[in-house]
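In response to the reviewer comment on reproducibility (Comment 2.3), we provide here a single inverse folding case reported in full, input and output, so that an independent group could reproduce the run without further information from us. The structure tokens appear first.
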């Protein structure tokens, strides 16, 4: 009998509709119609999600979270994990061709004359620190929300020395 069993290397990604169906609808004895009516969405939307035909949108996630007492992030995380796993397995060869960006490559070339002028101008301006309670420009006018400052060469060097995940996070946060 052991020779008849097929061993699967990895399970297919879990669709959020499977979680909805197996962990919520069936154990709680709920129908798609009842959930849809309570959430204020068409019955077919819940049925199609439970049948794994469509994904969960932000709107549906917020409604399901309210109804089941979970969070919208729970439902959206299920959807994102499913989509990423699906894409990574489907496009594995294409993704392998993409080379990772290295921040050190930016430091390899010397700054152009235009870049040097921009950097000198930025250094001469009064910097606006994001934690300042009141932001004021050089001419004394109050400023609105501060813009992220462009990366100076020493900042780029510091970022290049960080571990990779922190690199991306810090660049996103500005």
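Designed residues, in position order:
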């Amino acid at each position: 009998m052991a020779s008849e069993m097929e061993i699967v290397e990895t399970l297919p990604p879990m669709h959020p509709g499977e979680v909805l169906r197996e962990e919520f609808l069936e154990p709680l004895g709920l129908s798609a119609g009842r959930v849809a009516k309570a959430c204020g969405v068409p019955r077919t939307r819940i049925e199609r999600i439970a049948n794994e035909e469509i994904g969960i949108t932000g709107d549906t996630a917020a409604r399901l979270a309210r109804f089941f007492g979970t969070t919208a992030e729970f439902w959206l995380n299920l959807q994102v994990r499913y989509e990423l796993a699906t894409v990574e397995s489907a496009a594995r060869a294409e993704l392998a061709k993409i080379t990772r960006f290295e921040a050190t490559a930016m430091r390899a070339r010397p700054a152009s004359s235009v870049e040097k002028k921009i950097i000198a101008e930025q250094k001469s301006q009064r910097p606006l620190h994001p934690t300042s309670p009141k932001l004021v420009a050089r001419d004394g006018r109050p400023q609105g929300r501060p813009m992220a400052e462009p990366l100076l060469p020493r900042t780029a060097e510091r970022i290049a020395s960080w571990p990779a995940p922190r690199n991306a996070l810090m660049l996103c946060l500005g």
